[in-house]
Amino acid sequence: MQPIQMVDLRNQYLKIKSAIDHSLQEVIDTTAFIKGPAEQRFARNLADFLNVKHVITCANGTDALQIALMALGLQYGDEVITPTFTYIATVEVVALLGLKPVFVDVNPETYTMDIGKLQAAITPRTRAIVPVHLYGMSADMDAILQTANQYNIPVIEDNAQAIGAECTLSDGSKAKTGTMGTIGSFSFYPSKNLGCYGDGGALCTNDDLLAEKLRMICNHGQKVTYYFDCIGVNSRLDSMQAAILDVKLKFLNEYTSLRQAHAKKYDAAFTNITGIVTPQIASYSTHVFHQYTIRVQNRDALKSYLQEHGVPSMVYYPLPAHLQKAYLHYGYQVGDFPISERICKEVISLPMHTELNDEQINFITSLVIDFVNNNPK
């Protein structure tokens, strides 16, 4: 059996090597390394894939979130609602801009924003809602948008982990994650479902004026060179990363199908195994399985057990944002968000990538089952 990796980017690359190498050579030949044809082509193709009017590329997913907030014109002290169970970038950009994060708990089955808690978190200072499509599945965007529209609050979708997932709205229409709110943000970190070979990010919107502002902010606040209309940042997706992403975008649906097939095999192995909580797929969303995350008691011991047998695993995330040292000054306490606090002690993500095979999945699942059966609560 080949060694098991959390993410196997090398073997994925080898399958598309000729196309990747050709696209990189094209960039080198043109020497258009920034804002060149490769970046423009990828932005157009991603917009087509998402069925959205505008895609604006940037340097990484964290920048995408920050630029989205900047484009909304929020003022110091304005409140931004976000789940506490998320990667810290969602909260970090709020704090960096002098805004106030207002946390809400998550649904214990979907791990996304608890709609029942959202409305209670809204105050006269609320200026944005940032739902997170965690692990590869959409938050309940229909309910979030209804609430946001009721109070005229813009929605920024943190879609770093769920590109390609599809949400069904109450009118029966379907939309890809990232395209339903005011702005969608994306990360192309190498381990993402659509990942480059460095760092990269993007934003999308259907609002023409907002798209123009996002482009300016990404480019130092300028629309015309050396004339600066707003305060901006330097956040650009270089042409080589865009070229890689444009090739991989053609395979994204195939990659998603492979991840979903692997998840079904994990599910089948864990069926009826007491002590393992498998991922739940909401009725309104597909799941693209950026991570395959289970919940178990004795999580840290299971992680060590797997490592001893050559199986990597990761904990996304061991501590909710409201209890992180950097954010304690906002005044939240242990017990404020009990679902997130409990989940953080139980979640563990198993290897999930396009190159997994049945032998590896069988080995992983047998180890997990053996541990759980011999280490009951």
What is the fold's blueprint, element by element?
Blueprint: H1 9-15, H2 17-30, H3 37-50, E1 54-58, H4 61-71, E2 79-83, H5 89-96, E3 100-104, H6 115-121, E4 126-129, H7 141-151, E5 156-158, E6 166-168, E7 174-176, E8 183-187, E9 201-205, H8 208-218, E10 222-224, E11 227-228, H9 239-249, H10 252-270, E12 292-295, H11 299-308, H12 338-344, E13 347-350, H13 358-374
Parallel strand pairs: 2-3, 2-4, 5-8
Antiparallel strand pairs: 1-9, 6-7, 8-9, 10-11, 12-13
Question: What are the key terms here?
Answer:
Aspartate Aminotransferase, domain 2, 3-stranded parallel β-sheet, alpha/beta, Aspartate Aminotransferase, domain 1, 2 domains, 377 residues, 13 strands
